[in-house]
Amino acid sequence: MPGLQWIWKGLHSRNTRPLSIPYLKFPMANSTVWQAVSAILIVLVVHKIWTLQRALKCVSHIPGRQFLWIDPFHAVSLVLGSTFPWAGRIGHYSAKFSLYEKYGSTCLSTVRLWNSQVYYWIADADALKIVTSDRHTFQKDVQAVSI
Fold it and tell me: Residue 123: which domain range?
């Protein structure tokens, strides 16, 4: 194949022109559309990192501080409840109260990765009474409660 010989020769010869493969060129690399799309992606990534850091700062004094991939109170978690999240993670179905014992607290915290929402996992009966009775301070997710 003459094309491969030319590439090989171009890589090892000093007097040849720089290696250029036409099908590897990106036609949009210099366009303003490409620059706008990359700028928007950079802004979104920076915003996501900032919101995750802010959420983790809110729960910095509460044990746990793990990330959740899916919302623990919606349909997907009901389907995957026996297998996801994995053993040893907050929200695992078979963990029961072992994680509270591991962290030495009756309140654990997690942050949902996709929207930076903070979840508190409570195992104290008195605290649960306060949370369930004070509906103005502790607002419930109406969509999750209706399932």
Answer: 24-145
Per-residue pLDDT reduced to its tens digit, 11-61:
555 555 555 555 555 555 567 888 888 899 999 999 999 999 999 999 889
Q: Alpha-carbon distance 33 to 31, whole Å?
A: 5
Provide the token pair at 71: 């919302």
Report the alpha-carbon distance of residue 127 to residue 121 in Å, rounded: 11
Nearest to 89 by CA among 104, 107, 106, 69: 69
- Token pair 């409660």: residue: 145
Q: Is residue 111 part of a domain?
A: yes
Under a CB-based contact definition with an 8 Å cutoff, are residues 59 and 111 in contact?
yes
Cα separations in angstroms, 25 against 1, 98, 135: 22, 55, 59
Residue 2 included in any domain: no
Whole-model pTM?
A: 0.65
The answer to whether the CB of 11 falls within 8 A of the CB of 18 is no
Tokens for 99? 């994680």
